[in-house]
């Protein structure tokens, strides 16, 4: 089966995730700039999470563009990724509402870490289906960037037990690493 329905379904789920995050932000009671202070942590959490969902959407698009078809294993691997990404609005909202305290920051890190693991599993399922010489396999290689990201998430989760600010810096750092769409796949497709 082709990738079109998988891409359309994933795009829809990711759009809903962003919408849910936006709806979690409550409109402040007041008409001056001072009234925005109360929602600043939620807004900052929303910005980071919006960037993450955008990163996943962009890289997911590139990954599926590089393959010709999918199978049942890929469908379930994709559903696994979407499950973890669907937890980002809850974790993001809880983190913002509680001003980046320890447990919400830890839960947010777990959601990010598991999303990273799920993305890796999806990539490996696609590589298994298309072979070690496929465009995706060659483009990703050993996926050092993905593995390093998951390691940073794990470090950040443990850092939150001591200082949540360090965790937030690490989460933002991983987003920074991935902010520019993964050019490895684009470069490989252009060569073919």
From TrEMBL:
<dbReference type="Pfam" id="PF06736">
    <property type="entry name" value="TMEM175"/>
</dbReference>
<keyword id="KW-0407">Ion channel</keyword>
<keyword id="KW-0813">Transport</keyword>
<dbReference type="GO" id="GO:0016020">
    <property type="term" value="C:membrane"/>
</dbReference>
<dbReference type="InterPro" id="IPR010617">
    <property type="entry name" value="TMEM175-like"/>
</dbReference>
<keyword id="KW-0631">Potassium channel</keyword>
<keyword id="KW-0472">Membrane</keyword>
<keyword id="KW-0630">Potassium</keyword>
<comment type="similarity">
    <text>Belongs to the TMEM175 family.</text>
</comment>
<keyword id="KW-1133">Transmembrane helix</keyword>
<dbReference type="GO" id="GO:0015252">
    <property type="term" value="F:proton channel activity"/>
</dbReference>
<protein>
    <submittedName>
        <fullName>DUF1211 domain-containing protein</fullName>
    </submittedName>
</protein>
<keyword id="KW-0812">Transmembrane</keyword>
<feature type="transmembrane region" description="Helical">
    <location>
        <begin position="106"/>
        <end position="127"/>
    </location>
</feature>
<keyword id="KW-0406">Ion transport</keyword>
<keyword id="KW-0633">Potassium transport</keyword>
<feature type="transmembrane region" description="Helical">
    <location>
        <begin position="35"/>
        <end position="55"/>
    </location>
</feature>
<dbReference type="GO" id="GO:0005267">
    <property type="term" value="F:potassium channel activity"/>
</dbReference>
<feature type="transmembrane region" description="Helical">
    <location>
        <begin position="6"/>
        <end position="23"/>
    </location>
</feature>
<feature type="transmembrane region" description="Helical">
    <location>
        <begin position="147"/>
        <end position="180"/>
    </location>
</feature>
<feature type="transmembrane region" description="Helical">
    <location>
        <begin position="75"/>
        <end position="94"/>
    </location>
</feature>
């Amino acid at each position: 089966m082709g990738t079109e329905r998988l891409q359309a379904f994933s795009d829809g789920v990711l759009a809903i995730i962003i919408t849910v995050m936006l709806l979690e932000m409550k409109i402040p009671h007041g008409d001056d700039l001072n009234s925005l202070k109360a929602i600043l942590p939620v807004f900052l959490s929303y910005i980071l999470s919006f960037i993450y969902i955008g990163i996943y959407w962009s890289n997911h698009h590139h990954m599926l563009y590089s393959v010709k078809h999918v199978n049942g294993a890929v469908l379930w691997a994709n559903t696994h990724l979407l499950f973890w990404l669907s937890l980002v609005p809850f974790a993001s909202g809880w983190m913002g509402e509680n001003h980046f305290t320890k447990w919400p920051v830890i839960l947010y890190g777990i959601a990010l870490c598991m999303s990273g693991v799920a993305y890796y599993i999806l990539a490996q399922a696609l590589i298994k289906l298309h072979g070690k010489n496929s465009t995706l396999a060659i483009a990703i290689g050993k996926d050092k960037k993905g593995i390093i990201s998951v390691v940073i998430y794990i470090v950040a989760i443990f850092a939150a037990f001591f200082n949540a600010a360090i965790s937030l810096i690490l989460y933002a750092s991983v987003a920074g690493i991935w902010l520019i769409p993964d050019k490895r796949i684009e470069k490989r497709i252009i060569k073919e």
